[in-house]
Amino acid sequence: MASGHLTLLAVGQVLQRSLEPAHSRIANGGGRNSSIELLRIIAMFMILAHHFIVHNGYDVLKLPLGPERIFFQLVMAGGGKVGVVIFFSISAWFFLDKEQTIKSNLKRVWIMERELLFWSLILVTFYLVFDRADLSMKLMAKSAMPLSMGLWWYATAYAVFLALLPFLAKGLKALGREYHLALAATVLVIWGLTSFIPGMIKINDGFFGFIYLFILISAYKWYMEPFTTRQVRLMIGTGLGFFLLYTCASITLSLLGHDMKIYITGDWKLPVIMIGFGMFLLFDRVTFHNRTINRIAQSAFAVYLITDYAASEKLLWVRLFNLQDLYQQPLAILQILGILLAIYVACTLLDFIRQALFAVTIDRRRGHWFELLWDKVSIRVHNHSLSTDDRFIRRSRSLKTMNNH
Question: How far is Cα 80 from Cα 229, in angstroms, rounded to an integer?
């Protein structure tokens, strides 16, 4: 029993070390690849810019047709969808480097839940004290259980994906090369090619979008020849070409009196995936190390949690930085980007404080509660198995004795 317990603890220590973001461990075994970390920062800034447009108190379609409106719709609103693809691709790519276990993925969910709970409680307290007008009873209830109640859609969808990832990865591996590539081609037809046509079937749920991307990324990494840099650039250029084509269509419709969003920049559209995954492949081919970049990238998720909290959306994008007040200012685009950069920096500094407050706990006891619980469950299952085997042996011996008599 003692040796078994030591084995469980040893496995737990290995898994605990593996909880660091997979992209942080590069081939030579040292430090983080700052190229990927820089891409993470860029992706989160794109998502922040997207939120400024889509959650703003002033509808971008009410702006007069011109360069500013096109930039807001194409670059800022559309760029956020690309940012989501990039952010998920970073995780998915490196999940494929090692076998996924139920324990390690549930631990990832548990650690993420602690960060969500920290920020939800801090934010609900802040708005209770300083801005009750933007805080509803429903939001307060969600803040008590942020993950299970879907306070942040990305976090909840990602947690479900993590919980099912060990089974999904094993299932895809079991398919083999031929059927996996056939599956990738099938989903590309169902949700990829049809994404160019309005009114066709689409993916509305973030969790299914993650599975869709994971099928494509795993098929590429496991079974396909790596794209050359030229092919990657061609893929990104093709995606951008479709962005511009549909932007021209949107402008034409606006001139005819039909103001509409740029259709092709929506959730999980094929050009969005082409640009997002292509950008990841380009950044993944560069390796350098910079402590400042790596430090800032650690707080990218916190920027999302702070700014995409429902009360924060009202405070930031409806009351403080309303598009109606900003777009008429000189150099409006530069001013808005500067405001978003300042918000990003402020949120990052707040997360630095969180990390400093909990540095000792994170370093010394990260996942300790989960380790103890898992060990107890494992030992109990092991004991139950032994006792079941003992009962079976005793029963067999009893039957043998009866037969001999």
Answer: 24
